[in-house]
Amino acid sequence: MTIKIETITLRNLIGSVNCYLIRADKACIMVDTGLGGMRRDLLKRLEKSGPESNSFKLIVLTHGDFDHIGSAAFLRNRYELPIAMHQADSGMAELGDMFWNRRTPNLFMKGLAKTLFKLKKSDRFLADIFVEEGFDLCKYGIPGKIIHIPGHSAGSIGVHTSDGSFFCGDLLENRIRPGLNSILDDKEAAQASLEKILCLNIHTIYPGHGKPFSLEQLAEKYRQQGMPVFSTAPSAG
Predict the structure, then answer these.
(1) How many structural domains are present in the chain?
(2) CB within 8 A of 205, min separation 6: which ones?
(3) 63 in Cβ contact with 152 (< 8 Å)
(4) Half-sphere exposure of 233 (CA within 13 A, CB side)
(5) In a domain? residue 230
(6) For residues 91 and 81, what is the distance between their CA atoms, to the nearest angstrom?
(7) Containing domain of residue 41, as a range?
(8) pLDDT average, residue stretch 165-181
(9) How many Cα atoms are found within 13 Å in the side-chain-facing hemisphere of 191?
């Protein structure tokens, strides 16, 4: 089964965020939805090249930050889609508080969120599906599984497809070069998640911020820093 990926990069005054469409045969799922304030640009992209309504199966949210979940409720209503996320981040979406479950909230980001990252009441939601490690996406037409990768947040998840693509949310970033996100809630959990990723059969990593990169690029960075790096798995296919 051939998997096709479309990146939707949404920009505003403070930066950009990536959303992804993953297609296989007649099915499509969306990974993350951007800020609510980016909705107009998102809809333009979906109307231009997005899936037909009968092929759009699921929204997967990699974590509960507002720049990733801001249009989830809107798209659920528009396309009659279920929303899937990890329960550990559910309060962010339900209460509109991206610091709901964070142990060490970044004070700068907390202040910024009050003015720029607000989740309006109309955009708050309860997810339809709470996913765990190993959740199979085949029932939604996409050959892949959910990988739990806490560190940026307790409920951070990744999508690992059968062709070796990995959608990592904000655990990893590539604004300058590939690596762990500069904002982590639990550094030990993030390190464990990084080691898990380095052992997966991955050829390309798709981050929430920045351009895609290879697993080998990520491994090389940590080798240079003297970190014991597991042998990376061979590319799929």
Answers:
(1) 1
(2) 166, 167, 168, 172, 178, 197, 212, 213, 214, 215, 218
(3) yes
(4) 16
(5) no
(6) 20
(7) 3-224
(8) 95
(9) 7
- Tell me the residue type at 167: F
Cα gap 120→138, rounded to integer Å: 33
Q: For residues 156 and 147, what is the distance between their CA atoms, to the nearest angstrom?
A: 9
Q: Does 169 or 106 have the greater pLDDT score?
A: 169
Range list of β-strands (E), the chain: 3-12, 15-24, 27-31, 56-60, 83-85, 129-130, 144-148, 157-161, 165-169, 172-173, 179-180, 204-207, 213-214
Flag whether 184 is in a domain.
yes
Classify residue 237: in a domain, yes or no.
Answer: no
Residue 161 in any domain: the answer is: yes
SS3 73: helix
Average pLDDT over residues 95-123: 77
CATH of the domain at 106: 3.60.15.10
